[in-house]
Amino acid sequence: MGPFVDAYDWVAANPRSRMVVSLLDDMDAKKRDEHRARAFALLDGEADGRLVKTRARRTHPAQPAPPDIPNNG
Hints:
Layout: H1 3-13, H2 18-25, H3 29-43, H4 48-59
């Protein structure tokens, strides 16, 4: 498997990418390979904006649903 395993090991050792690696480990093999390739592209700087947006979105909890409005009819 050569350099791909070495690159994956580097990503695993990089503290800024551990969230990405933990998500990859939970996926089935086909999805994991697709997302792993995308993660390397993000970490290589090809799409840094998407990585930042993803992290920012995950740091804030989702807004609660608005309360139901009773029908006065």
